[in-house]
Specification:
mainly alpha, 2 domains, 10 helices, 0% strand, transmembrane helix
């Protein structure tokens, strides 16, 4: 039975990585288009009713900056792989023993840099997932304690693997215990972060959707006037999943015609206002 050589593996990796990078480039371009389109739409809608300072650029948000950094690291990793392929078959004909020997030396500068950018891409990607988890859970710090620990461990193991590759010699093997420990740690902590964050995001979305469905089904039986503070607060506690509105300043806002107009667009002093909308009332929490 013939064995697969290291040269064949690297050729296959170069082809597959180029294909996957093309898919990633299309998805990244489409994501950028959606971000710009959404920002323009929100700016156009709010421009007619709001005369305050303009919103920030969509490229200055943490998600946009993280996505741009991932794009840079992934692109650099792919370019290093292409450079190594070109060096092994072109520049290495006279200066070394051939492509097989070139790919066997893991202490090459391009190999160490490629490993470093790979670790950076995974770490930044996990950071974006943790940020999304933090935003979905209403910026509660306690929910991101566990993934932050796994992210720190992932970064530590990634730095250790990069340093281990820089000290690689001809007598070492990539399958020896030191390299296996670093690689196992990277895979374990990366999978742990992904499973934890994905599960928590799914649970929060499911719980919120269930609460909204219960609120919508039970709202038809409520007949409470928004101009009565006690009934208004009781209705918010019974219908809104996040609880009642704050007491501070609520009477003044409810008695103000502007606030009443915001609560009910069809408000008129001489006309009985329509039934309150629980989604609109909940936005004043």
């Amino acid at each position: 039975m013939s064995t697969i050589s290291l040269l064949d593996v690297n050729l296959a990796v170069a082809v597959l990585e180029s294909q996957l990078y093309g898919v990633y480039l299309l998805l990244a371009s489409y994501t950028l288009y959606l971000m710009i389109t959404r920002h323009r739409e929100c700016r156009r809608v709010s421009h007619a009713s709001y005369k305050g300072p303009r919103s920030k650029s969509p490229f200055l948000s943490p998600v946009a900056l993280g996505a741009f950094t991932v794009f840079v690291t992934v692109t650099t990793h792919w370019l290093l792989n292409i450079i190594r392929l070109y060096t092994a078959f072109h520049d290495c004909q006279d200066g070394c023993q051939g492509p097989q020997q070139f790919y066997s030396d893991h202490s090459q500068t391009t190999e160490v840099l490629k490993c470093g950018f790979m670790v950076a891409s995974v770490s930044i990607g996990d950071s974006l997932i943790i940020h999304r988890l933090w935003a979905v859970w209403a910026f509660q710090t306690r929910i991101i304690i566990v993934p932050s620990i796994t992210l720190a461990a992932l970064t530590t193991f990634g730095v250790g693997l990069t340093y281990q590759l820089s000290t690689y010699s001809s007598n070492d093997s990539i399958f020896q215990g030191a390299f296996r420990r670093w690689c196992t740690g990277i895979c374990f902590f990366s999978m742990s972060t992904s499973i934890y964050t994905t599960g928590c995001i799914w649970y929060k979305l499911w719980d919120t959707n269930r609460a909204l469905m219960d609120m919508a089904s039970g709202y038809r039986s409520l007949r409470v006037s928004p101009y009565n503070y006690k009934d208004f607060s009781r209705q918010c506690r019974n219908t809104h999943p996040l609880g009642s509105l704050p007491r501070r300043g609520i009477r003044k806002r409810l008695k103000s015609p502007i606030s009443c107009h915001r609560l009910h667009p069809g408000y008129n002093r001489n006309i009985e206002p329509p039934d309150p909308d629980p989604f609109t009332l909940g936005s004043y929490r």
